[in-house]
Amino acid sequence: MTSVVRRTPFLLWSGALACLVVVLLAGSRDVFWSGDFMVEAWPAYKLLMAGDVHGYLQHLPGYTGFVLTIGGPSALLGGLLGGHETTVYRLSALPGLVAIAWLAVALARHARDAGLKGWPLVLVLTAAGPLVLRAVIDGHPEDLLATAAAVGAVLAARGRRPTAAALLLVAAVVAKQWAVLAVGPALLAAPTGHRRLALVAGAGIFAVLAGQMLVHPMARSALTTTGDLFHPQQIWWPFGIDASASFTAAGHGVKTSPAWLRPITHPLIVAIALPLCLAWWRRPNRSLDDALALLALLFLLRCLLDPWNLGYYHLPLVTALIAWEVRSGRDWPVLGLAVSAATWLTFMTNHERTTDRPFLIYMAWSLPLLVLLARHLYVRRAPLPYRRSWPVDPTSAGRLSSPSTSTT
Q: Beta-carbon neighbour count of residue 22 at 10 Å?
């Protein structure tokens, strides 16, 4: 028995690392395909490898924290190894893939120890699901790291490790600013240590976001506005206005965002998290594991309310759903698998941006998922009526009266 227990983490890690290698190689076969890496991050990395630190700092994309802490060292190491774009990209993607693999092992091990039949699927779907691959193909390894750290923070808080949870929250926000949505669920998942978690995470996240907004205008813009890109797979699509011919010719679609909408969506996504967290906190007899369902709800709203919504945006949603299903004792990660498939259908199979079809398909599954999560979190279920197998004789001091022996 001991040897089996010792072998299990090795087998889980072997499977997770195999997934890591497959995703890394398959997702980075062509970094020139028009993915965001070449447009957003590579110009800064190229300047850094040439020794132009000032130019590197001036060309940082909106996710400055990741490019400074992970991308910069990866570019310098990649320069020593030959300076190829693919090498630099793979080095920058490794930390996020390792973090996702770590999360996959933790969830699969919990599922296996709980006797859940679908633990191998939990491992593969978390470490090498279609949206993990999509994030790598689309040139956004920072979303891998932010996803693993955000979901890991809620799990750490639930496991009575508030300091670890706080540090993971800070790491998640350093990687990508949307991870600030995980703060409320992490606090509500923690049985103890709320003050320490709030102080450490709050101070760290405030320093990160304040530094980005003060120093880098693109980071400030990413926090406060969504720009003119306007994709069908989001709730604001009916409010879009006709785009210019040049905008449409560039492949951005036939609609663009109205001016009134651009400055409100990102602040709204963050602002709506507070009342949702408070409403769930006030619910009696709530399960702390449902903090992962709350996290999934906030990530789903982030996708629904963002006019720039893309397929890989749903990676944190899918990962939170898988973690919730595992912690809830469900044999199979049905929701995680279904949302992965639905996202692929909506964004990759129906990727055109000139008709309402992607909008209708997206609403057809995202709104029912929203209702399902909200109903589970906020609708108070009436207790089942107490039923006896037969009536009680009030004169018998609570003695059960069988129909066959009744004295009536």
A: 13
